Amino acid sequence: MIHPQAIVDPGARLGDNVHIGPFTIVGPDIEIGDGTWIGPHVVLRGPLRIGKNNKIYQFSSLGEAPQHVGYKGESTRLEIGDRNIIREYCTFNRGTVEGGGVTRLGNDNFIMAYCHLAHDCHVGNHTIFANCASLAGHVTVEDYAILGGFTLVHQFCRVGAHCITGIGAVAFKDVPPFVTATGNAAEPHGLNVRGLRRRHFPESSIEALRRAYKVLYRSKLTLNEAIEKLEEAAESFPEVNQFLSFIKASTRGIIR
Question: What was the pLDDT predicted at 232?
């Protein structure tokens, strides 16, 4: 299922039922899993591993060298999991030695057109990146996060699970899980309640997260005071514990 006008290096390893469109270039040291569909005019550069049943649309560039002034041609890689949709003009770069050597996209993600994953980013599972969302280097995006169109995330920041950002949000600090964030610079604007209900979170957990949000953002407590107060609720609700653990682990600080 390789188009005669595609260029596939003999060193590439292709699984069963892989489709390669015309004018696509597949370099050496690339592995593509079963059932993956790659459209026309895509450039793949290794070391690169792509899992099973992905759909990669035209004009995307995956696995190119990191945009990092310290990169000296070291063998770093990009890893893409299973069942991802990667739309037109996306650019995913390989990692750097300083950042651990791997840029990683998990499973079941929907990455819309013109999105960018810089070197050493780690993106989880079931995320949605709307058009032109971009991550700087060393960013972590946790499961089920949704980035609105033109969202920008500064280097070394984390985006928590089940959060959502508005159009044009610019995150210079960590975005805690379950939160809605908008603006430049991004600020919290309540919980992502609609998203939580779509994912069948119980109302008791949503209400506990509402109370946790109020403690952190509306009680006028210092961060340390808020953390101390949240410790009690974290014992009864795992979602609050997840919220609290993310905050306590932050090295960049959280949006407030």
Answer: 85
> Residue 120 catalytic?
yes
Write down the pLDDT at residue 242.
97
Fold topology of 196-249: Udp N-acetylglucosamine O-acyltransferase; Domain 2 (1.20.1180)
Q: Which of 51, 137, 148, 149 is catalytic?
A: 137
pTM to 2 decimal places: 0.96
Is 108 assigned a catalytic role? no
For 196-236, write each residue's pLDDT tens digit. Answer: 999 999 999 999 999 999 999 999 999 999 999 999 889 88
The 3 state secondary structure assigned to the chain is CECCCCEECCCCEECCCCEECCCCEECCCEEECCCCEECCCCEECCCEEECCCCEECCCCEEEECCCCCCCCCCCCEEEECCCCEECCCCEEECCCCCCCCEEEECCCCEECCCCEECCCCEECCCCEECCCCEECCCCEECCCCEECCCCEECCCCEECCCCEECCCCEECCEECCCEEEECECCEEEEECHHHHHHCCCCHHHHHHHHHHHHHHHCCCCCHHHHHHHHHHHHCCCHHHHHHHHHHHHCCCCECC
**CATH 2.160.10.10 spans which residues of the chain?**
7-138
Whether 119 is a known active-site residue: answer: yes
